[in-house]
Amino acid sequence: MAGAQPASVLDRYFGITALGSTFRTEVIAGITTFLAAMYIIVVNPAILSKTGMGFPAALTATVLISFFGSCAMGLYARNPVLVAPGMGLNALFAFTMVLGVGMPWQTALGCVFWSGILFALLAALNVRRFVVEAIPANLRYAISCGIGLFITVIGLVNAKLVVSDPVTVVRLAHLSPPTVTFLIGLALTTVLVARRVNGALMIGIVVTTLMAVPIGRLWGDGSGYFPKEIATATLVNFQGFFAAPDFSGIGQLDLLGALKVAYLPFIFVMLFTAFFDTLSTFMSIAEAGNMKDRDGNPRNMRQAMIVDSFSVLISGPLGTSPANAYIESAAGIAQGGRTGLTAVVCALLFLPFLFLSPMLSLVPAIATAPALILVGVFMMESVARIEWHRMDEAIPSFIALVMIPISYSITDGIAYSFLAFVVLKLFTGRVKEIKPAMWVVAALAVLLLTQM
């Protein structure tokens, strides 16, 4: 409310009242973001363990970086954004660098560190301001919508409602007890959202989890929702409360080995991927939550980029692939989260899982999928603001809108849209509309795509 006085230290620090939020809303938003993204605590170690790293050590590193990064994002950048090891970056680390090229995982961690050093330099020099200002409004809207579609696709795939097909590429799965349970949970969550129930996404996650308890016990089989090594018929599993943390992965990085000439391209690919992922995440979240500064740019962007670079920098020493801002933060923002308190709550929820990791098996993928799908709905609002009548603007926007979900990569989708923008402006006589920073970004996009 206008003129309302801050009621507490937290209110004064985070500006909760000033931004039109409440303490309760921020807490609910933090819980919602955590529930939507907590899969990373298990998924990241599962990917990294394929390189020879110990699963418990990778899990400990995942929790620590998620805690430190999210706390920094909340306390310093004061944005409601989760920071955790990036999906895509962990695949690059494991399958390309270590298993593909044969790089020792310790050396790969060294590459993570050096990419963090370069990222920190870019953040300190405020390079992001020139990049953000060079991106036209239409592309910003399209990137936000494309990421929304990407999140929806992730939800559909996690729920296994959409599956691969050798003939049609993808198709709808046959109905089964898990998919029916997911659809009921999606319907319930949709109704709650439509009725504007506070905490609708979190309620949907909890209720869908409860509905999933009988699967594998009374009917159905949920084994397809887990990696083969840990597959069980039951979707909701209690595997105990306590597991001791493993700190053996801390400090295992090989800094000098990572500086071999043959490994330098991987350092730059990590840098560009982390930089563009962070930039696009904040642009899309700013659009979805109307969190912009006076110039129309994402709020506290410089501080957020510094936090992200700090997170990448400490990821290697902690023993994990690079961390970055998580687009699942949009789930909490959709619940009304507007301040750094949301990120701090999310960070605090990660910390107990240093000791309570077995409890993560209580929330199945079909329970968080409805929240991800509806976040996609929230993020599509700005599609109407794209100037579709201007082909030189509409075509690059359409490429971003389509390529981000289809390529299953935010960075690749953005890279192709930037290249299309530069090419169209260049050959339609509108070269003056290309700002200097966009030329640089387009060149980096070419370098990034040729390294993939």
UniProtKB/TrEMBL annotation:
Protein name: Permease
InterPro entries in alphabetical order: Azg-like (IPR045018), NCS2 (IPR006043)
Protein family according to the UniProt entry: Belongs to the nucleobase:cation symporter-2 (NCS2) (TC 2.A.40) family. Azg-like subfamily.
Keywords assigned by UniProt, alphabetized: Membrane, Transmembrane, Transmembrane helix, Transport
A Pfam entry, by short name: Xan_ur_permease
Membrane-topology descriptor: Multi-pass membrane protein
Domain of life: Bacteria
Sequence intervals crossing the membrane: 27-47, 53-75, 82-101, 107-127, 139-163, 175-194, 201-219, 262-285, 306-327, 339-356, 363-386, 398-424
Compartments, record wording: Endomembrane system
